[in-house]
């Protein structure tokens, strides 16, 4: 299985499963189960994220960004994690908040699809 942390991968699709592999003690079945669980929960979170964004619920979105950020940090998806941190801090003006939320949403969706494809996980899109 590969990590996407090379120079040819766009920054927002770069990730590594090294930390998760260490947690799974190198067991590939456990790694796939963890990634599958991550994808399922992230999809649910992204649905909620979209709703909160469209309804402009900044405080609720800040809480959700905090929740999501830790797993993306475990995947070393630092660019996406930074966007989530900015949303979590909730100090952006309205225009910056919307732009940052839209970028984070798009990048998270793309990263989930990438991980699913890389690890041939059978979640429904």
Automatic annotation (TrEMBL):
Domain of life: Bacteria
Annotated positions of the Phosphohistidine modification: 66
The organism of origin for this protein: Sunxiuqinia dokdonensis
Database matches in Pfam families: Hpt
GO biological process: phosphorelay signal transduction system
Domain HPt: 27-118
Keyword Phosphoprotein: yes
Gene Ontology molecular function, alphabetical: protein kinase activity
InterPro entries listed in its UniProt record: HPT_dom_sf (IPR036641), Sig_transdc_His_kin_Hpt_dom (IPR008207)
Protein name per UniProt: HPt domain-containing protein
Key words of the record: Phosphoprotein
């Amino acid at each position: 299985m590969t990590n996407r942390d090379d120079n040819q991968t766009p920054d927002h699709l770069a990730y590594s499963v090294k930390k998760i592999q260490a947690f799974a003690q190198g067991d590939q079945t456990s790694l796939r189960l963890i990634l599958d669980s991550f994808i399922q929960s992230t999809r649910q979170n992204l649905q909620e994220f979209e709703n909160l964004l469209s309804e402009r619920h900044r405080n609720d979105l800040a809480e959700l960004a905090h929740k999501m950020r830790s797993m993306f940090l475990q995947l070393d998806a630092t660019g996406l994690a930074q966007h989530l941190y900015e949303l979590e801090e909730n100090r952006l003006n309205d225009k910056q908040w919307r732009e940052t939320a839209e970028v984070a949403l798009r990048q998270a969706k793309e990263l989930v699809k990438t991980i699913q494809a890389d690890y041939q996980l059978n979640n429904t899109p």
